[in-house]
Write a structure and sequence with these properties.
The protein has three helices and eight strands. By secondary structure, the chain is of the alpha+beta class. The radius of gyration is 12 Å and the shape is globular.
């Protein structure tokens, strides 16, 4: 089973859901203009299945996702367009904002 970490933060009317592939938590990604830290503080939450993560993302106003598994799953559910994905080295990253 593919597992990801899901962290949900609610503030006022907004819900931020951050998701990372499990193996990326705590890593620093190189290959962009600046190093990208997949910090436990921001991404560390509950270990979840891809389906659970996608469900949490569907209820969010803002999503921040990093990792091949979660980004591909979000593309597959048409939550993210492939052209909106940026890469930090070979690791995909995407953001979703519902206005």
């Amino acid at each position: 089973m593919d597992e990801v970490y899901v962290n949900t933060i609610r503030q006022n009317r907004d819900t931020l859901v951050s998701v990372c592939d499990a193996e990326l938590l705590g890593c620093t990604l190189e290959g962009g203009r600046v190093p990208f830290e997949v910090s436990e503080r921001f991404y560390g939450g509950s270990l979840s299945s891809l389906e659970e993560a996608l469900e949490a993302m569907s209820k969010a106003t803002i999503c921040n996702i990093v990792g091949k598994k979660i980004v591909e799953a979000a593309i597959g559910k048409e939550m993210v367009q492939r052209t909106a994905v940026v890469y930090i080295g070979d690791v995909p990253h995407a953001q979703i904002v519902h206005l």
